[in-house]
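Q: what does this look like with 6-O-phosphono-beta-D-fructofuranose bound?
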Amino acid sequence: MRLGILTGGGDCPGLNAVIRAVVRQSVKNYKSEVIGFFEGWKGIVENMYMPLTLSTTSGLIRKGGTILRTSRTNPFKLANGPSVILKNMASNNLDALIAIGGEDTCGVAYKMFSEHGLNVVCVPKTIDNDLNATDFTFGFDTAVNIVCEALDRLHTTAESHNRVLVCEVMGRHAGWIACYGGIAGGADFILVPEKPICVNEIVTAIKTRHSRGKDFSIVVVAEGAKFDNNEILKDQELDSFGHVKLGGIGDQLAKIIEKETGYETRTTVLGHLQRGGSPTAFDRVLATRFGVMACDLVHKQEFGKMVALSGNEIKAVPIKDAVDSLRTLDMKLYDMAGIFFG
Ligand code: F6P
């Protein structure tokens, strides 16, 4: 067989580990060839690619980012995008495509499969962990570990200065990173998009904490969290999939906390640090298992499927199940995190 592979959407640690696994399994066990399209769906539309061999993918397990680069290109927004994709699949003698991505990339893959007959298999990637039908996406564990380490560092400086430190984390409209990172890093309050921000609750928690002799507090806020009065942040731009560009809630919140509590408050926005650098061991193993299984699915001609983690098993699920709706935070976990607030 000849396979194409692409990485779309925001990058995350573990993408290269999937590429390496797909190539190793294809070459070693199926004698198949692989090419990699550059910059997500843009690369297959513009026919930009490189051959992927054992030597071009060697040593990738520890390397963050993606050697294929990525973009948030939506081919359904381009003139003849879908038919150009099919044409370039044929002109490169490709039998199938492996698309590694999140909600948007897998959403395009599903439309290409169901409406245009593309032979495609998906691999779920995103630091946000907001894809349905899989227990975890790779990249999430690395992001959580980065948040945890940041909170450990913020603790020592917050304590030295008797400050409240607000840490804004990514995650788009799901509070997975905030909740996991906040629990692991011992946050004194965590705010997630799934529950409107109630200023009174935070202020009470911080004051309660200070009244029992703790002169500093750490507050984790997800970039997608919103105030209960529905206040909308101004100047929000949209990307090519129509998603709002988030960010800025941390600063807004810090000003309110300082005003309402009288405690000096500062903000740290972790931003793209959460997507950079080497994957954790967990993400390396998950990405490798996903890559090998995606390659097996392609060779069994099980198209329209996504590899998924279910318990500790890697399974094949319909791509549709993953992209039908967003996987938001399990509020049982958030309620447990609340035991440690204040
Ligand atoms: O989906 C991953 C993610 O990092 C989100 O958490 C965040 O909202 C968004 O991408 C940021 O996108 P960009 O890299 O385009 O700024």
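The chain has two domains: 2-139+279-323, 141-276. DSSP finds eleven helices and eleven strands in the chain.
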